[in-house]
Amino acid sequence: MRLRAAVARWRSALDARAADWVRRRQGEDRLPVELQRRRLYILPTRGGVGFALMLLAMLFAGMNYANSLALMVTFALGSFALVGMNHCHRNLLGLRLVSLEAQPTFAGEPVRIALALENPGVERHDLAARGLGASAHAPSAAAAAITRLELCVPTQRRGRLHLSRLQLATSYPFGLFRCWTWVHLPREVLVYPRPHGTRPPPTGASGREGSRARHESGRDELRDLRSFRDGDSPRQVAWKTYARGMPLLVKEYSGASAESTVFDFAALADLEVEARLSQLCRWVLDAEVRGSRYALWLPERRLEADCGAAHRARCLEALALHGLDAPVAGPVAPRRASPPAASSVRPVLWTIAVFVAAMLLHVDRLPPWCSVAILALAAWRAATALGRRALPRSSLRLSIGALLLLAIVAQFSTITGLAAGTALLAAMGALKLMETAARRDCFVVIGVSLFLVIAACLDRQSLLRLPLYVGAVWLVCTALAIVGTPQVPLATRTAVSIAGRSLAFALPMAIVLFLLFPRLQGEVWALPGNGAGVTGLSNEMSPGAISELSNSYEPAFRVRFSGPAPAPRELYWRGPVMQNFDGYSWRREPRSFYRQAPLRYLGPPYRYRITLEPHQRNWWFALDTPTASPDRNVIFTYDYQLVALRAVTQPTSYDLLSHTQVRATEPLSPLQRRLALQLPAGRNARSVALARELRAGAADDAAFVRALLDLFRDGGYTYTLTPPRLDLDSIDDFLFRTRQGFCGHYASAFAMLARAAGLPARIVTGYQGGEWNPIGSYFIVRQSDAHAWAEVWLDGRGWSRVDPTAVVAPDRLNRGFFESMPSGVSQTDRMLREIGWLADARLAWDTVNTWWKDQVIEFDLRAQLGLLSRLGFDSPRLSQLGALLAAALVAWLAWLALHLGRMERPRDADPLGRAYRRLCARLGRVGLSRRPDEGPLDYALRIDASRPQLGASVRPLLEQYAALRYGPAPQGTGMRDFARGASRLRLRGESA
Amino acid sequence: MDQDLAVALATLERVILGKPRQLRLCVACLLARGHLLIEDVPGVGKTTLAHALARVFGLGWNRVQFTSDLLPADIVGVSIFDRATQQFEFRKGPVFTQLLLADEVNRASPRTQSALLEAMEERQVSADGLTYVLPEPFFVVATQNPTEQLGTFALPESQLDRFLMRVELGYPDAAHERELLRSGERRDMLERVQASLDSVRLCQVQQQARRIHVAEALYDYLQRLLLRTRERPDIKLGLSPRAGQGLLRAAQAWALLAGRDAVMPEDVQAVFPAVASHRLMRRDPTAVGDGTEFARELLRSVPVSP
Hints:
heterodimer, A: 36 strands, 45% helix, B: alpha/beta, 46% helix, 17% strand
């Protein structure tokens, strides 16, 4: 308790200090008070600070995972908050307080302090005034009109109420910033004593005045005729009028003979002071209503008999101030006069809508029961809000929360990881929704929704989902606008438009931040696996493995050549190389301590850029054969494959240089030779015998290879996607029984036969061919283009590619998978490729999507450095980057101020007015500025009077303007003459 | 400006010395077909002015001195039983003239005031079931003394609204007062004044004033003025649409007098204090201040162009 009291004391001392500082800085004000830049203060609200913290967290998440969309959303929201700050400031700027009136009132009734604010600019919203502990709100102030606010300050005692300063504040539009100003217009309001008392007033009373005779009819003047009342003297009746047939009327006279009474303070000796004052007040009011004259005698002064409004005011003032020397200060304005909580259904509904929308982004990743539970909770909350029922008890909420948590942990068996984390976040948001009552809670739920949006961005960044994210962010901003003005929430249309416009203004700065904000290299905190399934080639090839992939039309990667591309026959994309054969399947050799032998490169070099789709494995594909590894974290293995240290979980781009023809420069090392000749003992015996036989019959290795190829071509073998299953001795089975196979079978058989004949051989899996996209000028290589071929070591040449498919199904190489094997393609895919406009549309979509992935999603540190070097910063330091960003921020803020300012004065449709204003501004610079209420002719006369030589040239111009503006002739060409004349005017002493 | 009007103004300035602006306002009021209220202390020439106006414009005129027991019949006329014809005959009252000077209009009872004001408004008089139209052109020049409040019935706001302009003459300055003292009675001078126009010509000039061009920008300014009077918190009652129309007509008349073919903001500003000061009701009852000064301050607060 003591601590709290101490804090309160410290706070009030701080407030007093701040108030003094403000008063000293601004000085006293006089009506009309114009709210200029100098006197406006702006700071973030508590919600604004929370928003900033949230943005920091989102920024960290985006930078850590190098997620472009998350970063973009963060930067957009940050810039959006700055735009909101600008709007908030402009909401008060330019307002003019034109009157501050307070009518005196009686104790017990509230003092009404009336403010009138004149709004010269565009429409404003959410204005609040605070003073003496009371507050008043105006939800909107129309343009070019006057808005009135009324503060009701309760009073209890009589006296003088001193209003020392008034606060005008707003937190439009999003409740993130609060802009306020102090107005020092001291006002004193009299509080009269409460009229109370049942004693009858004195009649006639002391002194001569009560007994003066009336009816000195010769002198007095007839004032009015009123109807006859019982008890009126017959002398007063207007008989002549009665004789004429009118009803009985009584004449009333004005003049010095009217009745008067004296109200004496001292006469009420038996009451205490306040009661006396109250009774006197009652008498005064009654006497005034009756219209009789009265005098008021107080110990310190006496007011002589009179009647009328002024006399009444004087008497009441004397009564109010009796015995008081110093003015009674009003109740001190509390630090934050909290307005009465408005019953706010719309903000709560909008919060629910935003939360549901953010959650729906995840609806296909969350388990169905989770989505349904959360939607049910949201619907329950909506029903509660609409039906205005009470929220569920906290015990119920806690039990639901515990249940959800247990279920999520059971489902995902962890609470880390993106999916589990998202579910947890959504559940927490739903629970918070159940206890949402005040504006603060709504802000929290909106924050949770924003995090859900970020989680969706971290999850998927495809172009198709971009409109969803944009829509979600716009929805969040609209909800902020509605929740941020809790007194009278903005109309939906206004909120949507202000949110959309602010986001649009924020976009340029967001893009600049996106391009220039320094990125992290690598992750600080890695996400555990996405859980998405692995696709594509594996490190093991068994018969039929490749043909399984032929079902998938998914793109594996895209290639853009910087020069001419090789012929389709040469488009071999090197993937996993397999050395280990167990008789059935081939596997990659896991140990990689073998040395890579240098190569001699023949033929033209091919430079290209590959963009891999995430396939959850470590392979980086390249055109056979690449010359070096493109990245520090990717190993160029001994068998000329590119293997990354980490799996490809995001689209990845890299540049490579390849040659399609290579020669070895060293002989094969014995270790590698042994590896490449390894065969399981006792398996595929017939094939081994065949190989030996063929080798014996061939002159050398090259001839043996040719013989093998002849075997395949002429041996009655067919190339099919669906060969029969093979036995464990797969090669024997394939070569001698089934004779049907896909590329994998042939390659496997060839490699095995070569090894059996003592020729080092290995399998290379990868892709062959690719679809050319003429719109984007790149190749699309799909999973269906997956291929397997063999490599044999020929002395003098080194590892040489031998593709049995070339002899068995040459079409496959020349025309690609789709053309050569139409049966393997589904109906829709075939339609997409054959129908002209559909194919074009598909390719165009692929181009756009690829651009999106390359330029936006993959904009990482490397791409940023590339951009900076293009701008001229070759190795930028952080300080340089900071300076660039700061310059961009200043430029953007200036553009924003200019644009917003211009939007508030849409007067471009009036060129004549513009020219005139320019002329007046120029004249103003030499000391002859036009008063706003001065017409052009008066202005001309004034200039003529004060500076005749200038007047000689200016006066015809002003008369011309007057004729154009107010004259009967249509404007037309006269306007141009005027503008030309105005601009040609020479003004001496003008500061340009 | 029309030659005749120039001569008329010059003649008036010879009769009433040292008040060129007020005279111009009065002439503008006449050209705008409006009624004039002259509020001033006694003896500055209110009656002389009305008489001069009538003579210069060739109008027939009457004068009624309002007292507290004046009856409506004393103004509009009374039906008298003529024994010869055995019929009631309506004898027209002093209102049946082209320029009526109603002196001290605030002294009569409200009933009498309303009779006059109704005639002003309708430009006709109904008696015994018959309607008698007042002559064309018809003006009422009413006077009242602002300082004497005792025993007066102040004109209510709705009736004040019927007067197009309120003009204050004020004391002449020293030079002109000297000349006035030297040149003697105005009455004789008035006998010698020649009419510069006649009623037909006056009607023509009135039509001409009506046709002076008013641009859209001027309507904007006018409406801004009217809006300002209605929205300022210290004004209880702003200018009515009738006042706005009156202001426009007065401005057109002023432009005609200046020889222009279109109304300028300066014209509006020139007639505004006269047109508006008696119509604006201040919220603060204790506000003491010249209505004219207040109107001028209002003018200063309204920009001419947006």
